[in-house]
Amino acid sequence: MTNLAPLDGLIPAALAVKSSKIMLDSLEVQTDIGFHDFEIGSPQRLLVTVELWLEDLAMPADDRPETAWNYDFLRNEVIRLAGARRYNLQETLVEAIYQRLAAMRGVKALRVSSAKPDIYGDARKVGVEVASFTGCAP
Predict the structure, then answer these.
(1) What confidence score (pLDDT) does residue 27 get?
(2) What stretches of the chain adopt beta strand conformation (E)?
(3) How much is the pTM?
(4) Are 90 and 128 in contact (CB under 8 A)?
(5) Is residue 72 one of the residues assigned to a domain?
(6) Does 71 reside within a domain?
(7) Residue 9 within any structural domain of the chain
(8) CA distances (Å), 20 to each of 39, 98, 102, 137, 138, in order?
(9) CATH number of the domain encompassing residue 96
């Protein structure tokens, strides 16, 4: 393994890290969701995206997995919540995911969205999104 020389003092202040985010993009889950008669009891494909901004901007200094965010935990929590019960609304599931992740230590801002990709033949997907901020990013 090649050791990279530290670049301390060489990075201009204007390029200092100002935001750090973990993303889980379009995780495909099967969940019993929807209020129409044909949806009830028939699990559907749902795409869930999580963007989680971190309070700590520092990257792990030692390249050890235990010093970084556990992506498996994030993924498994979304899967667990999607399968935990039947949902009438995407909004309800998204809120459950949002509440769970917002309660985690080190979260500065959060956006969670879900989308049903198989509902309309003339649309790529239909979904909902909630965020702890307005605009594109905190």
Answers:
(1) 98
(2) 21-31, 44-54, 107-116, 126-131
(3) 0.86
(4) yes
(5) yes
(6) yes
(7) no
(8) 38, 18, 16, 11, 11
(9) 3.30.1130.10
